[in-house]
Every structure is written in structure tokens, then in C-alpha cells.
Amino acid sequence: MFTWAYPSIADLQLHKIKKYQSILKNDYRDFSKAIRLNSQEIGAGSFVYLRRIFENLIEETRQIALEQNTDWDNSVFEGSKIDQKIKLLKDYLPSILVENRKLYAILSKGIHELTEQECLDLFPKVQLAIELILDEKIHQKEKQMKISSVKSFVSATIEKFKS
Length: 163
Prior knowledge:
By secondary structure, the chain is an all-alpha fold. The chain has helices at about 10-15, 20-25, 25-40, 45-70, 75-80, 80-90, 95-100, 105-110, 115-160. It has nine helices and no strands.
């Protein structure tokens, strides 16, 4: 006998986040785990994975700051709490993250203090915040690709006109 299988809430959500795979790289698996756990009503566990993604975004940005900023003081960064780290990285992070850096406090409170139900209730908005950060990163990446394309076009065309 054949039975129809309907997609789970997690299946629908996972389809929606595919676009973040290239930005998240290894953290994509954690993002999908967070969504699966949430769909199985495991609130605090889902927050653990979202917080890990958040922390990895900060660390990835620190690496960029180290490469691009010769005045970067890594010892100050390492001795700082996340809120201060975000302030130190403000020139390298999406503005939405800098403006809403208290998101990390929400994630931590979810892991350490909130009930499963409270985490489940907060999860959609926290997921949305993470997605907004990722959307801005995708936008910046696309913008850089377009800038590079225009620069190459102008340079090549000017060289062609010279001959």
C-alpha cells in the first residue's frame, strides 16, 4: 500500500536556506541542524548551533581584519567580550549585525537560562536575524563581483582602444 508523505517543517525550511550554503560553507550543516532540532521541538539545542554560527561569523571577520588592517590589535580583540568584538569589527561586519549585536546575548540566554518553550518561541526571529546577516554577506559578495567585472571591462576596453 502506498502512503503519501508530506514534507516536514524542517524539509520546507531546509529548502529555503540552500542559498546560504556558499556563504556558510562548513556552518551550513550546523544551520540545517538548528532547523531540524527546532522542528523536533528541541529549543536550547537549536540555539547552540545558531550561536556557533554567530561566533564563526565573528571569527571569520576577525581573520579578514587581520589580513586587511596592519594596525589590528589581536590581543585587545581576544580579551574582549562578543559585544566589544563586534564593535571592534564594525568596519568589516554587516551593519545589521553591528546595530543588533545583542543577538548574541539572546542566543546565550537561550542556551543557559531559557526554557525549551521560550527557545522555540524565539527561534524563528533569531533564525531571521541570522538570515539577514547572511543576506547582507551575499549582497556584498555579489557587489564585489560586479565591481571586479566592471573594472576588468573598463581596463580591457581602454587597452583595446589604445591599439
